[in-house]
Structure to design on (83 residues):
């Protein structure tokens, strides 16, 4: 996908990309500058992850080992993708 940089150095993230990544007005993003490229990643706010423990709050059975493993997998994936 090709986009154009404006005179003042701004770029516009296409609507389809914003929608796919959940980027809305006021969203925060992380900009990673590498040797020859740039990566833009949305930063999830606490509001985005609210309800992640809804089942536990409602007293439903919890498999904490599964939650721990999934959390570790997500953290590891984020570390690898941020390099």
């Amino acid at each position: 996908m090709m986009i154009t940089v404006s005179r003042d150095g701004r770029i516009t993230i296409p609507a389809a990309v914003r929608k796919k990544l959940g980027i809305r007005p006021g969203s925060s993003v992380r900009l990673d500058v590498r040797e020859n490229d740039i990566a833009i990643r949305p930063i999830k706010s606490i509001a985005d992850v609210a309800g992640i423990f809804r089942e536990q709050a409602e007293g439903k059975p919890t498999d904490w080992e599964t939650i721990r493993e999934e959390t570790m997998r997500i953290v590891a994936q984020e570390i690898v993708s941020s390099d």
